Structures are given as structure tokens and as C-alpha cells.
Amino acid sequence: MASIYLSEKHLRGFDKYKYNAVDTSPLSIYIMHPFWNAVVKIFPEWFAPNLMTFLGFLIISLSFIMLSITDWSYYAASRQHPQYPPIPNLVFLLAGAGLLVAHTLDGIDGKQARRTKSSTPLGELFDHGSDSVISCLLPLCVFSVFGRGEEDYGANVWMLYALVCVICTTFYISHWEKYLTGIMFLPWAYDFSQLALVVVYIVTGIFGYDIWKGTYAYGFQFRYFFILTTLGGSLILSLPNTIWNIYVSYKDGTGKNRSPLRAVEPGVPVMVLLVVATLWAAFSPTDILQLEPRIFCLTVGITLSNIACRLIISQMTETRAKGFNWLLVPLMIATAISLWTDLGPTELYFLYALAAVTLLAHFHYTISVVIQLADHFNVYIFSLEKRSPKGARPPSGNGNK
Fold it and tell me: How far apart are the C-alpha atoms of 49 and 47, rounded to whole Å?
């Protein structure tokens, strides 16, 4: 059995858990949900909801790998760096189609669970845990559309870092909100942003990079419009609603009524992560963010994903969200050594080692938790087949028919 990360208190909390979400987005209500209600009927009832979730995650991961292979350093879109060949248009078309399919699978997995009467807390945790990683991968993928090089309508890698931090933090805040209110208020910007990215990929795949390069009316440039829209959608649309919902829950006594200390505690590990990572990026002797933006931002995003998964578990099980995450320790050590010693080129290897440790630790944690929950609820992860009751003796023989 996998290493046990969940205590008996966690498991008892999962046993009592009931899903509670509110979706008021007009786009979701009038367009996406009717579309998803139709699409889910295409799938047979034996098709496991978790398999839908995993396929969507796998598609986004493959898009990330595909774009990483063709544009590792984010220079492919720059005409000022001809030594980096442009990304083939087909790659963008595949990324756009893949995102549309993945978003659809994310929209119908819960409907399939209710349709097949197979809803469990495992399914919700599996869904949100996958989304926490996807929220990191999406900005790392779409940044290839305009790439680096401000002299050719590209963007600075600090903009990429800001996108990853803001998008991942916005995802985290939505679950922090549920930790305090008991209700998941689905953000309005989510479906719109996914569909907008699909359009950007498809347009780039048809017309190439050049369609986004240029200055239009009133000094409009795509790079700034895209980044400001993304940041604005997260900060302007989501954050005020979150603050209001939390305020109302405390005012009316409808939320969890946690003490001020317990209420702010989930924000501590995120603040530590962002402060430490930003200090490393800003004062790195080798300018580590410029040198390896993809790995640096991926490491920050996956660390935030791990913090988010632990908060989601605390929120679902009514347990205390801890104010520290051990994955911050290797980050702080790497940052301290890099800033206070003259590592030279070795600093890059510290980043690679940190990325490997972070990825391995996070996926060991998530896989172990999923296996432990599947065992607890006595269900298969990717199948709706019934497992034998716990304690039942297996059939004799070798199982061949």
C-alpha cells in the first residue's frame, strides 16, 4: 500500500463530506452546462469519471511537453532570434483542440459521476488536484504564442512568472474561500479564459505568430492586452467576490466561523513561497529566471499545487490547514545557498535538483493519497467495477476462465 499521508481524522472527515458549489456564471449556465449535458450522454455508463479527469490532465500535460520540445527557451516566436526555429502551426492547432477537449472532460466528469451514481470525495479531490497542476501548465504553454523578446512584440520572463503566480494563487484562493465559507463559488472567468485560450491557439495555428505582432489603434498590443486581461480577470473579477463572500459568511454566521488566526493560516505557505522564489529570481547571481524560465516557473507552480492539494484536503475533511509545507524547505535552502555563495554555473544545477525533488515529492504525495482514498472507499480509481467487500476472501484458483 502507498505511504499513508491521511490520518484517521482525515478519513473520518472524508466520510462525512458533502459537495457544495455555486456556479452563477452566465456563460456556464446558458452555454457550457447545456453543451456538457449533451456531450456526457455520448459516453457509455461504464466509463469512469476519474478516467475523464485523468485524460484531460494527460492532454494538457502532452501539450506542455510538445510546446517544451519545440520552444524550450521561449524564443521561437521572436524574429530577432532566427537560430530558434518557429513552432509548427500544427502544434498550436493540436494545443487548441487539446485544451477544448480537456476543458470539456473537466466539465463532464462530475456529470458522469452523478449519472452513474459513482460520486465520491475521491473524485472531487482527483479533479481539483489535477486542476491545481493544470493551472500551472496553462500559462507555461500559452506564453509560447508571443514568447520572449520585447523588441519583437514579445514579453519579459517576469511577465511569465507573474502569470504563473497569479493564476495558481487565484486557484488557491478559491479553495481558501471554500475552507472559510464551506461553499465553492466557481469563478466567472474560468470558462471564458479557457475558451479564449482555445481561440488564441487556433488563430495562431491558422495565421502564425505574425498576427499578434504589431501596434494597433490606441497603441494596443496583443502581449499587453493578453497579460493585463489575464491578471485583471483574476484580480478584478475573482478577488473582490472572494472577499465579499467571506465577509458575508462571517457576518451571517453561514460559514465555518474560524478564528482570525486559523482563517489566515492557509495564506502563510503561499506568501513564504512567493517571497522566497521572487527573492531568488530578483537577486540571483546568474539571473536564474532569465536563464531557465520554464523550469523555475514550473517548480514554483508545482510547489503551489502541493500546498493547494493539502488545503483542499483540509477543507474537505474539516481539519486544520497547516501554515507550513515541507516542500518550502529545499526551496529556501537552494535560495539561501544561491544568494549567499558564489555558485556560478552550479546555481542552474541547484534549480534542476530542486525541480526534480519538487516534482517527485508532489506526485508521490498525490498518487499515495489517491491510492489510500480508493482503498478507504473500496473503489477502483479508473473503473466503475465493484471491488470485493473488505475482508472478503478472494476466489480460489488462478482466476482464469
Answer: 7
